[in-house]
Design brief:
The protein has 4 helices and 2 strands, in the order αββααα. By secondary structure, the protein is mainly α.
Length: about 120
């Protein structure tokens, strides 16, 4: 892979990492004990005592945010791993067959770990 394309993909990954972190920090705090982990803040819809309906909505909102947190953390992990592969000069090679990952695939998903052939294997 030429240096220009590699720099382009690295920039995309770094931009995505920044965006993922910003989105996570909107509703979660970094876990001080576990690197790369975030803890969703429990929403509070009011200071006064809540009705059962308001409490149920808070719980439902919290549960939805937990699922979003998990998805964003997972993607952040994939992006960080791809940036680490760039640093170690192993980026762009399938982790299963060690062949080059198709450039179109990397442009669509710069954090891809496998080529299309290995991705589509059962």
């Amino acid at each position: 892979m030429n240096k220009k394309v590699l720099a382009e993909l690295k920039k995309k990954l770094e931009s995505e990492r920044t965006l993922l972190k910003e989105n996570l920090l909107k509703f979660a705090d970094k876990d001080k004990k576990v690197a790369g982990d975030y803890d969703t803040r429990f929403p509070s819809f009011g200071e006064r005592s809540s009705s059962p309906d308001e409490e149920a909505k808070e719980v439902e909102t919290y549960e939805n945010l937990l699922a979003i947190e998990y998805a964003l953390e997972l993607r952040l992990k994939e992006v960080n791993e791809a940036l680490e592969r760039i640093k170690n000069n192993t980026y762009g090679y399938c982790e299963n067959c060690n062949k080059e990952i198709e450039l179109g695939r990397l442009r669509a998903n710069p954090a891809a770990k496998t080529c299309l052939l290995c991705t589509n294997k059962p």
